[in-house]
Amino acid sequence: MPNIVKAACVQLNVQPNIQENLKVTEQLIREAAGQGAKLILTPENTCFMRFPLNLRPKDAQPQEGHEVLTAIQKLAAELEVWVIIGSLGIKLEEGRLANRSFVISDKGEIAATYDKIHMFDVDLPNGESYRESKTIQPGEKAVISDTGMAKVGLSICYDLRFGALYRQLAQQGADILTIPAAFTVPTGEAHWEVLLRARAIENGAFVMAAGQSGEHENGYRTWGHSMIIAPWGEILAEKPDGVGIITADLDLDEVAKARGAIPSLQHDRNFELGT
């Protein structure tokens, strides 16, 4: 029997009003579930994204009682689907934030969490400047969640540029790599697709990448182009812009097939730098 998981990515255009963002997100999750999706990924900064970044701590909520987390837990249980909240800004005790992914089971329980490891601190050629490390506490641990359908390796946005993270996830058995994001337009246009396809191909894994899209507060613009990619590198579904969903059937037997055809995960070696 085919080992197939119906998966979906939600693409959003988050604005400052959390309740309005949540309403749209819930509608899209319902739409994805209505199309048969059992594993649904939302973008980075689901329902809450402020620009400039120093506005985020003021309105951020702690994990306990977080209105978005609580609502999506209830919705996942109602629809009997697994939802991976790409990330929420979670207020920490020391006044900083965690950029945290949540894996919500089909019973509405938190099955796993992951805090974004790599901070986007950069000055872009177009004059834009970002300092995530000023407000966000980076994570320290790579995380895989076993959903019962597949083993899912978690990451967030800028993590995409660090191949060693995905190699570790694949070496530990991840079948699907999730990459929720709010990629900037210049970097998205230049690198988003090629990096996503590379992560799928080099690890023989499915990639689910859910993005923010369009113009946000203070003119900040995100690239969109949510994608679902097969282990051989084919793009199974894509939404270039706008708000909505994409779905695809993930035949998990393709993971073993790709890794068998190119068994690079078995050929990794430790080595020293020569002179």
What does it look like?
26% of the residues lie in helices and 28% in strands. It contains six helices and 16 strands. The strands form four sheets. The protein has a six-stranded mixed beta sheet. The chain has a six-stranded mixed beta sheet with strand order 8-9-10-11-14-15, covered by helices on one side. Helix 1 runs parallel beside helix 3 (67-79). The longest helix has 19 residues, at 185-203. It is globular, with a radius of gyration of 18 Å. The protein starts with a strand and ends in a 14-residue tail after the last helix. The mean pLDDT is 95.
Radius of gyration: 18 Å
The N- to C-terminal Cα distance equals 53 Å
List the domain count as a whole number. 1
Strand content: 25-35%
Query: Which fold name is given in CATH as the topology?
Result: Nitrilase/N-carbamoyl-D-aminoacid amidohydrolase
In short:
With 275 residues, the protein is an alpha/beta fold.
Map the helices and strands.
Elements: E1 4-11, H1 18-34, E2 39-41, H2 56-59, H3 67-79, E3 82-91, E4 97-104, E5 110-115, E6 121-123, E7 129-131, E8 144-146, E9 151-154, H4 163-171, E10 176-178, H5 185-203, E11 206-209, E12 213-215, E13 221-223, E14 226-229, E15 235-239, E16 244-251, H6 253-261
Helix pairs in contact: 1-3
